[in-house]
TrEMBL record:
<dbReference type="InterPro" id="IPR003439">
    <property type="entry name" value="ABC_transporter-like_ATP-bd"/>
</dbReference>
<dbReference type="InterPro" id="IPR027417">
    <property type="entry name" value="P-loop_NTPase"/>
</dbReference>
<keyword id="KW-1278">Translocase</keyword>
<feature type="compositionally biased region" description="Low complexity">
    <location>
        <begin position="307"/>
        <end position="324"/>
    </location>
</feature>
<feature type="region of interest" description="Disordered">
    <location>
        <begin position="307"/>
        <end position="351"/>
    </location>
</feature>
<feature type="compositionally biased region" description="Pro residues">
    <location>
        <begin position="325"/>
        <end position="340"/>
    </location>
</feature>
<keyword id="KW-0067">ATP-binding</keyword>
<dbReference type="GO" id="GO:0005524">
    <property type="term" value="F:ATP binding"/>
</dbReference>
<dbReference type="GO" id="GO:0008559">
    <property type="term" value="F:ABC-type xenobiotic transporter activity"/>
</dbReference>
<dbReference type="GO" id="GO:0016887">
    <property type="term" value="F:ATP hydrolysis activity"/>
</dbReference>
<dbReference type="GO" id="GO:0046677">
    <property type="term" value="P:response to antibiotic"/>
</dbReference>
<keyword id="KW-0046">Antibiotic resistance</keyword>
<keyword id="KW-0813">Transport</keyword>
<protein>
    <recommendedName>
        <fullName>ABC-type xenobiotic transporter</fullName>
        <ecNumber>7.6.2.2</ecNumber>
    </recommendedName>
</protein>
<dbReference type="Pfam" id="PF00005">
    <property type="entry name" value="ABC_tran"/>
</dbReference>
<dbReference type="InterPro" id="IPR017871">
    <property type="entry name" value="ABC_transporter-like_CS"/>
</dbReference>
<dbReference type="InterPro" id="IPR050763">
    <property type="entry name" value="ABC_transporter_ATP-binding"/>
</dbReference>
């Protein structure tokens, strides 16, 4: 399938802080492509360069064959974006917001249909401030889709939602993809990426450390299985550690944890049975995307979450307060406040 987004050797720095360091990936037509990484890893900065909100220092970006800076007007018409910190005026009603944003596009979707599909039909007259967290996210998705985009970029879509609202949002994303929209999804939730994404790019400290399907990434984890059980009688570790399938054995009180590859479970249970040992409360854990993520990023993920964001924030302008916010003054659902905008307070740090 043809690539709808191409990023090659992208670089972006803020002062001495490198936020994006030689990032490259492609997004194919019709897929859900995830950008996965800890807070401060460079995910949002990468996406903001992709959609044309930030100018990269170096690198090449193509969206639907277009340059998002040179061809901004055309890209805006064909790309829908939901940003991490998007907000609307408190008194703006759901229906009003959709009609306003729809007026920016050549071929807008029907607001009534979008509200019905996204479960907002009963909230068309509700002010933004009165919406729940889940309803605000649904509205954000609706605003990203009001232009009938070919590609939707969704940044940290389910952050702050309760578990049920998060799963409802996941169902919506899968439904959007089924309608032919290619999705670029930015997240730091492993379960979200594992459930939704066809492929993910793992970013750590501004660099891509892996690009593959969630299944393929989990297969990279060396310890293919983790088997836990409580033996009916004590036994020596050597009984199991001598098996070729076993890569490790640890004990947590009376609980035995064995890691291994291949047909480890059969090998272990066979040896235990021959020695009249019953494996009680046996449980088999297979590697998850989280295990793969930890293996790929190591301890760096923890430091990247806080240090990079703090360092980048130090390069941002100081806070200012101003007059009330107004609707976006330029086309597109991804208006971003600037120092000249009354909505801007300087608190947003790139990540």
């Amino acid at each position: 399938m043809p690539a709808v987004i191409e990023v090659r050797h992208l670089h972006k720095s803020y002062g001495a802080t490198v936020a994006v360091d030689d990032v490259s990936f492609t997004v194919e037509q019709g897929e859900i492509f995830g950008i996965l990484g800890p807070n401060g890893a460079g995910k949002t900065t990468t996406v903001e360069c992709v959609v044309g909100l930030r100018d990269p220092d170096r690198g090449e970006i193509r969206v639907l064959g277009l340059d998002p800076r040179r061809d901004r007007a055309e890209v805006t018409q064909r790309l829908g974006v939901q940003l991490q910190d998007g907000q609307l005026p408190d008194r703006m009603k759901v229906g009003e917001a959709l009609r306003l944003y729809g007026s920016f596009y050549r071929k807008p979707a029907d607001p009534e249909v979008l509200m019905d599909v996204l479960g907002l039909a009963g909230r068309r007259g509700t002010p933004y401030a009165k919406l729940s967290g889940g309803q605000k996210q649904r509205l954000s998705i609706a605003l990203a889709l009001i232009g009938s985009p070919e590609v939707a970029v969704l940044d940290e879509l389910t952050t702050g939602l309760d578990p049920q609202a998060r799963r409802d949002t996941w169902d919506l994303i899968q439904d959007i993809r089924s309608r032919g929209v290619t999705i670029l999804l930015v997240t730091h939730f492993m379960e979200e990426a594992e459930r939704l994404c066809d492929r993910v790019a793992v970013i750590d400290r501004g660099r891509v450390v892996a690009v593959d399907s969630p299944t393929a990434l989990t297969e990279r984890v060396q310890d293919g299985q983790r088997i836990r059980f409580r033996p009916s009688v004590p036994f020596e570790d050597a009984l199991l550690t001598g098996l070729p399938e076993v890569t490790g054995l640890t004990r947590q009180g009376d609980l035995v944890v064995v890691t291994g590859t291949g047909n480890t479970l059969h090998a272990i249970t066979s040896v235990l049975a021959r020695n009249d040992i019953v494996a009680e409360h046996l449980r088999v854990d297979r590697p998850s995307l989280e295990d793969a993520f930890v293996a790929l990023t190591g301890d760096r993920a923890a430091t990247a979450t806080g240090a990079a964001g703090a360092a980048v924030g130090a390069n941002q302008p100081t806070s200012r307060r101003s007059t009330p916010c107004h609707p976006p003054p330029r086309p597109g659902p991804y208006h971003r406040p600037s120092p000249a905008d009354p909505c801007w307070d300087g608190s947003r740090s790139p990540n």
